[in-house]
Amino acid sequence: MRDYKEFLSEVLISQDQLHQRLVELGKQISSDYEKSDNLVMVCILRGGVMFLTDLMRQITVPHAIEFMAVESYGSGARESTGQIRISHDLNTDIRDRDVILVEDIIDSGRTLNSVLDILCARKPRSMVVCTLLDKHDRREVDVPVKYVGFVIPNKFVFGYGLDLDDLYRNLPFVGVVDEKKYRTG
Ligand code: IMP
Ligand code: MG
Q: In this structure, what DSSP letter does residue 123 have?
């Protein structure tokens, strides 16, 4: 297996920066949901897993967690059409609950837009989005996002849950891939 150092062009967000921002987000969410008795954090697999598990440790209000996996249709590895199929659905009903949808990254916004349509149809009491990364300049579909970890430039990133062809999700930082080195390696 190739060492990521062969194609890492830069560390965009360090482990320390991630931790600091997660503490802030955790505080904000804990205060915003102080009065909620029905909070559920819904994580979109697989990219959002690390973010969810670290973030929930910073949240002091009681909450449940749920997972959802979606597959995109007709998309290349690096862009999405927004047409999705649910390959793993939630195990509980979210009707009348306060939902925070936890995502790794929003790029065009198409995937998230489709997920929101599906989940909002189930009539939650409230529904907001919390994303670790926001590639804001790439947005094609306007999606409401309440909590953003970091706005990042239009570069392909990996690590901290985000994959490069299914690998390197375990890295504790967010790195930028040198596409040329990655492809020719
Ligand atoms: P969207 O539908 O264009 O917003 O695509 C969002 C999805 O594309 C994310 O959930 C990721 O799975 C993937 N994605 C977009 N940009 C990156 C990236 O820079 N690194 C890794 N995955 C990405
Ligand atoms: Mg994803």
A: -
Residue 130: pLDDT over 70? yes
> Rounded to the nearest 5 degrees, what angle is found at the Cα of 59, between the Cα atoms of 53 and 62?
100
CA of 5 to the centre of ligand 1 (A): 22
Q: Residue 109: nearest ligand to its CA?
A: 1
Residue type, 31: S
Amino acid at residue number 150:
F
Cα(20)–Cα(68) distance, rounded to whole angstroms? 27
pLDDT tens for 10-32 read: 999 999 999 999 999 999 999 99
Is the model's pLDDT at 87 over the cut of 90?
yes
For 179, phi then psi, to 5°, come to -60, -40
Is the CB of 84 within 6 Å of ligand 1?
no
